Amino acid sequence: MAKMVDQRLKLIICSVFALNAQLVFGDSFLNFTFLESAVSKGAVCLDGSPPAYAFDKGFGEGANNWVVFLEGGGWCNSKSDCLDRAKGYFGNSISRPFNRTFFSGILDQTQIFNPDFYNWNKVFVLYCDGASFMADVERVDPKTNLTYRGARIFDAVMDEMLAKGMKNAENAILTGTSAGGLATMLHCDKFRGLIPNAGRVKCISDSGFFIHGTNLPGAEYRLRRFAKVVKTHKLAKLLPTSCTSKMDEGLCFFPENFVQDIQTPLFILESAFEKFQVTSLSQ
Ligand SMILES: *[C@@H]1O[C@H](CO)[C@@H](O)[C@H](O)[C@H]1NC(C)=O
Ligand SMILES: *[C@@H]1O[C@H](CO)[C@@H](O)[C@H](O)[C@H]1NC(C)=O
Ligand SMILES: *[C@@H]1O[C@H](CO)[C@@H](O)[C@H](O)[C@H]1NC(C)=O
């Protein structure tokens, strides 16, 4: 319960921030596009709703450059947890206020606030699967009707972007925050593989380096938590085999155990005092 209140409070704070930001920076909300065509491929959110993204077309010198942002929002780690999640903000694509999202940071459309990327093609991928865009479970649980298909969502949205011109990208960045930052690392080489002709492809993981931290308080709790995500979403065969061949799959959701095997240039952005990791993940 406390967690839910906390979540709502964060949403309210974000909304207030977004409102203020809108007044200062102009209208930087972009509508979501629902990828209805993905539904027949089984690429759907936890609740079965279609994937969604928001897209801002590049122009000028950015016309052939792409930045793809994977949204974060924690994970669900049991059937009942995922069932709760499926009803809300991060478990479906139909609960977002006004069906739109705010473009800020690396997605900011203004030259003064985002001089390097403002004119790139920019994509915001809505997070609604609960396992960092990684799951691919064919079977739909008849008791809950939940679908664990994050990897299919990633693939479907990437196909859409390739068709929109990303296949001719000169430069491309895959990025994301939190659970999306973890997804960025897990998908980094796959992303590179989608655009073999691009000159430069790099990944930026923002606040996604979740540590197991065997010598720090709460290590067992953190492992239990991630192991449950891996089990619930059946990720064992989908995590980097360079890691799963050496250790338990639960450990292979921790970047410290697979990041050294990523071939594509990766920039990790992580506060040494990140509040979420030093409080929520250390009891
Ligand atoms: C976004 O959606 C709103 C509400 O449906 C609509 O009024 C607006 O024109 C849309 N904006 C764009 C750029 O399509
Ligand atoms: C958002 O889009 C969904 C799916 O198209 C629609 O059912 C819902 O009414 C829309 N919500 C708003 C606030 O426009
Ligand atoms: C699952 O979906 C089917 C088909 O839409 C529906 O008949 C059934 O009631 C659903 N079950 C649950 C538990 O929601």
From TrEMBL:
<keyword id="KW-0964">Secreted</keyword>
<dbReference type="Pfam" id="PF03283">
    <property type="entry name" value="PAE"/>
</dbReference>
<dbReference type="GO" id="GO:0071555">
    <property type="term" value="P:cell wall organization"/>
</dbReference>
<comment type="function">
    <text>Hydrolyzes acetyl esters in homogalacturonan regions of pectin. In type I primary cell wall, galacturonic acid residues of pectin can be acetylated at the O-2 and O-3 positions. Decreasing the degree of acetylation of pectin gels in vitro alters their physical properties.</text>
</comment>
<keyword id="KW-0378">Hydrolase</keyword>
<protein>
    <recommendedName>
        <fullName>Pectin acetylesterase</fullName>
        <ecNumber>3.1.1.-</ecNumber>
    </recommendedName>
</protein>
<dbReference type="GO" id="GO:0009505">
    <property type="term" value="C:plant-type cell wall"/>
</dbReference>
<keyword id="KW-0134">Cell wall</keyword>
<dbReference type="GO" id="GO:0052793">
    <property type="term" value="F:pectin acetylesterase activity"/>
</dbReference>
<dbReference type="InterPro" id="IPR004963">
    <property type="entry name" value="PAE/NOTUM"/>
</dbReference>
<comment type="similarity">
    <text>Belongs to the pectinacetylesterase family.</text>
</comment>
<dbReference type="InterPro" id="IPR029058">
    <property type="entry name" value="AB_hydrolase_fold"/>
</dbReference>
<keyword id="KW-0961">Cell wall biogenesis/degradation</keyword>
